[in-house]
Amino acid sequence: MQASASRFLQHLPLFASCSPEHLQQIANVTTEHRYEKGAVLFQRGDACDGMHVLVYGKVKLSVSSRSGSEKVVEIIYPGQSFGEAIMFMTGSYPVMAQTLEDALVLFVPAAPLLALLDSDPQLARRMLAGLSMRLHGLLQDVASYSLQGAVARVVSYLLQALGEGEHAGAVTLPVNKQVMASRLNLTPETFSRVLQKLSEQAQIVVEGREIHIPDANKLQQLIEVA
After folding, report:
1. Rounded CA separation 212/171 (Å)
2. Beta carbons of 155 and 196 less than 8 angstroms apart
3. Higher local confidence (pLDDT), 138 or 101
4. Which residue in 50, 31, 55 sits closest to 93, CA to CA?
5. Other CB atoms closer than 10 Å to residue 1's CB: what's the count?
6. Smallest Cα–Cα separation from 72: which of 95, 53, 40?
7. I need a labelling partner for 114 at 20 to 30 A (CA). Which of 4, 91, 122, 148 fits?
8. Which parts of the sequence belong to the HTH crp-type domain (predicted)?
């Protein structure tokens, strides 16, 4: 276990510059956890005593209202970590983490990692940089949800997923449409209506989770007139 954890961790930007000794120290205390689709890693309010690193699969971070409606805050992909911000605060999780498919997760307990941070300022700076980038992304999401309408949110996502400079192609939604809608702060019904509107106005073709975009310029124009 320690050998495989060490090999995986050393390829993460967060730990890429760690000395072999420090990396081995982290690997020695890292535990491996396999989860089936739909498994809950932690609930909102659970105490945070470490950070998680996703090896494969997808994990959603979400919050639920008293009425039972769910808001997906973030989707975690392989190679990403989560939980480290709360670990620094020695507090409780503000979100629930649940697997969207079978997943392998590494758990790094807080105490040895924090001790390593005290002795390795470069690691501390890299972790702060990673947290800052994630915060910046979440703030951009909030601004987008506040200032953009439903069509603009979906179009912006599709264009970003298609890739800069691409004029046509296909986008595969990384999660089902219900989760994708929540991530864009839309109801599933609104998300479906927007896709139908884009089919009519920009000739996109929706086939399950795959969306074919014959002309990205038509999508861009929809944002400009929105």
Report:
1. 6
2. no
3. 101
4. 50
5. 11
6. 95
7. 4
8. 148-217
* Residue listed under structure tokens 């890299």: 126
Enclosing H/E stretch for 178? helix 177-183
pLDDT tens-digit profile of 21-64? 878 888 888 999 999 999 999 999 999 989 999 999 999 999 98
| Residue 62 tokens, joined | 């979400």
**Cα Rg, the chain, nearest whole Å:** 20
All residues at 6 or more sequence positions from 122 whose CB lies less than 8 Å from its CB, including other chains: 17
- Report residue 170: phi and psi, to 5°: -135, 145
Q: What is the pLDDT of residues 75-104, one digit of tens each?
A: 999 988 898 888 887 789 999 999 999 999
**pLDDT (0 to 100) of residue 70:** 85
Please state, in angstroms and rounded to a whole number, the distance separating the CA atoms of residues 210 and 226.
Answer: 25
User: Which residue do the tokens 């950070």 mark?
Assistant: 51
Q: Please state, in angstroms and as integers, the Cα–Cα distance from residue 86 to each residue in 20, 28, 89, 122, following that order.
A: 27, 22, 5, 20
Q: What is the DSSP letter of 44?
A: T
Lookup: tokens for 20: 């072999």
Longest dimension (CA), the chain: 59
